[in-house]
């Protein structure tokens, strides 16, 4: 019998360019083991980064069958980049598992939640379009504006005030009207495993923003999808793409301290994985909070590069809802153990997950909108 590394990845040939990345994990003594929030929440070897990468590799080189039970671990990942921070090789587990999902979808062995997400993608993006139509009625919005705002499906689906707060804040801080983008970045397709449509969606977005001067993105997941995953496919935006916190932090002097009863107690910042490890944005949200609160925000013991994932990403709430729930509860338990109070984040999925569990959770957009005097 040949050694596994001698075999071509004949069964899932689209993973061939990822062979070296997969093998780095397969032959690794699991050095990043303790960093994976999924296998920490559900301690099974197949759910460690090593286990997930090995399973995709063994399916690809025909060591195991291409079957739903061997495919499922590829979806047991939030795409949090946590393992990369603990890997001497900075191995790209996130991108490789997303690639594996696409290969496994093509084989018809994706988990039902992923298949559903692909089938219902059009329905999901219609909510973004409806939201954009509502925002178009705001006096700050003009189709011809050079600055465009992408709210993202998760904020649009929450049907709260955050999208309008963000649009009005960007317009006020930038001193000019903004336009609102009604095309999704395709993140749900990336997470579910439809790479072809994900690329098409990225091309559509690039077309829509090509005459804009900049794109301000509200959801950290959308910003990371555009700047990391679409860029990997060679799909770039002509306009610079900035997250809301990066845009607002350049205008700190225009913000005033907020006067809210809850802001007098502990206010702890949760780093969203896609904003922090994904884009390397750690200081901008902290600077915004410090300006709004008049003091540095409280911190989790595990923060910045080492922050724990809240379980909201990579489609995990759909494919493994119990594990995603445990991860959110664990993060909130840490928050309580460190003094409780208000938890602030800049990620629609984390916010929803924290609020659903009864936490006093506030979006950073809401705080910046108050500090900018638009709320
Ligand atoms: S990500 Fe790095 S440390 Fe983790 S299993 Fe793979 S090679 Fe090893
Ligand atoms: S990216 Fe995050 S969830 Fe995925 S394997 Fe690595 S640590 Fe685990």
Automatic annotation (TrEMBL):
InterPro entries: 4Fe4S_Fe-S-bd, Cys_rich_dom, HdrC_iron-sulfur_subunit, Helical_ferredxn. PROSITE patterns: 4FE4S_FER_2 (PS51379). Residues 15-46 form the 4Fe-4S ferredoxin-type domain. One of its GO terms (cellular component) is plasma membrane. GO terms for molecular function: 4 iron, 4 sulfur cluster binding; metal ion binding; oxidoreductase activity. Pfam families: CCG (PF02754), Fer4_8 (PF13183). Keywords: 4Fe-4S, Iron, Iron-sulfur, Metal-binding, Oxidoreductase. PANTHER family: IRON-SULFUR-BINDING OXIDOREDUCTASE FADF-RELATED, IRON-SULFUR-BINDING OXIDOREDUCTASE FADF-RELATED-RELATED. This is Putative L-lactate dehydrogenase. It comes from Labilithrix luteola. The lineage of its organism: Bacteria, Pseudomonadati, Myxococcota, Polyangia, Polyangiales.
């Amino acid at each position: 019998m040949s050694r596994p590394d001698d075999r071509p990845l004949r069964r899932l040939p689209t993973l061939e360019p990822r062979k070296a990345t997969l093998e780095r994990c397969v032959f690794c003594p699991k050095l990043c083991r303790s960093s994976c929030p999924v296998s920490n929440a559900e301690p099974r070897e197949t759910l460690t980064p090593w286990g997930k990468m090995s399973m995709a590799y063994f399916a690809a080189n025909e060591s195991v069958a291409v079957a739903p039970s061997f495919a499922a671990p590829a979806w047991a990942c939030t795409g949090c980049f946590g393992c990369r921070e603990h890997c001497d090789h900075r191995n790209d587990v996130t991108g490789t598992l997303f690639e594996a999902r696409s290969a496994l979808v093509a084989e018809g062995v994706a988990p039902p939640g992923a298949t559903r997400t692909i089938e219902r993608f059009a329905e999901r993006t219609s909510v973004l379009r409806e939201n954009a139509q509502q925002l178009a009625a705001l006096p700050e919005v003009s189709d011809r504006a050079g600055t465009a705002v992408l709210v993202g499906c998760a904020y649009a689906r929450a049907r709260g005030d955050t999208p309008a707060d963000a649009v009005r804040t960007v317009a006020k801080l930038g001193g000019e009207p903004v336009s609102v983008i009604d095309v999704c970045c395709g993140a749900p397709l990336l997470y579910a495993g439809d790479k072809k449509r994900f690329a098409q969606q990225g091309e559509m977005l690039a077309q829509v923003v090509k005459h804009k001067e900049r794109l301000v993105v509200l959801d950290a997941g959308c910003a990371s999808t555009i700047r990391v995953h679409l860029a990997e496919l060679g799909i770039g935006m002509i306009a610079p793409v900035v997250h809301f916190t990066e845009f607002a932090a350049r205008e700190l002097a225009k913000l005033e301290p907020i006067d809210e009863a809850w802001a007098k107690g502990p206010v702890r910042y949760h780093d969203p994985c896609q904003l922090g490890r994904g884009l390397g944005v750690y200081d901008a949200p902290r600077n915004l909070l410090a300006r709004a609160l008049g003091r540095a925000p409280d911190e989790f013991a595990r923060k910045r590069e080492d922050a724990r994932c809240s379980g909201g990403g990579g489609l995990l709430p759909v494919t493994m809802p119990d594990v995603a729930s445990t991860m959110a509860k664990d993060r909130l338990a840490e928050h309580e153990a460190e003094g409780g109070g208000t938890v602030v984040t800049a990620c629609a999925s984390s916010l929803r997950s924290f609020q659903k569990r009864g936490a006093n959770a506030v979006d950073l957009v809401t705080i910046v909108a108050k500090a900018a005097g638009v709320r």
